Amino acid sequence: MSQITQIEKDANIISKIKEKIQILSFFITLLLPSIEVEAFGTVTKGGHFACLKKEWLIDMLRFKESKRASDFQSYLDSKKCIILRKGIKVVISEFPSIMDNTVGLIYRRTRAWTTVDALDFSEPDHE
Questions:
Q1: Helices 54-65 and 69-77 meet at what angle, rounded to 10?
Q2: Which pLDDT tens digits describe the chain residue by residue (127 residues)?
Q3: Hey, how many other C-beta atoms are within 10 angstroms of the C-beta on 37?
Q4: Cα(127)–Cα(120) distance, rounded to whole angstroms?
Q5: What is the pLDDT of residue 19?
Q6: Residues 43, 118: contact at Cβ < 8 Å?
Q7: Distance CA 21, CA 15 (A)
Q8: How far is CA 63 from CA 23, 49, 53, 83, in A?
C-alpha cells in the first residue's frame, strides 16, 4: 500500500511540474521575438519607399517601373506608403526570398515592407 501511495504522490508532483513547464514555455515564446529583434536590426537608406502591405509595395514597384507618377503619388498621399529617411533603425521581420527582394520590417511596432536596396547593412546598429 505504501508503494501505491508513493507512486500517487510522485504522479501528482510530475503533473504539477508539467503545468509549470507549460506556463514557462509560454512566457519563453513571448520573449523570443524580442531576442530576434536584437539580432536583425539595421538602418534605412534615404530616398527609398516602404509600404504598410506587401501588395502595395509591389504596386509601387510597378508604378515606378512603368513611370506612372500619379499612381505612385496617390499611394504616398493616402499614407499607404512613405519615403524613408536615412538612418531609421528598423528590425527585419521577414527576409527576402529567392524570387523577390522584398523585406518585411518593423519600426516602432508598425510592420512595413520595402526592398533590400532600402536597407544599409554596413551601418552598425548601436543604441
A1: 150
A2: 688 888 888 888 888 887 777 766 665 655 555 444 445 788 999 899 999 999 999 999 999 999 999 999 999 999 999 999 999 899 898 888 788 889 999 988 889 999 999 998 775 554 4
A3: 13
A4: 16
A5: 76
A6: no
A7: 10
A8: 49, 12, 15, 15
pTM summary value: 0.64
Spatial separation of the C-alpha atoms in residues 114 and 52, rounded to whole Å: 9
Residue 32 cell numbers, joined: 523570443
**Which grid cell sits at 2?**
505504501
What whole-number distance in Å separates Cα of residue 3 and Cα of residue 110? 58
118 in Cβ contact with 104 (< 8 Å): no
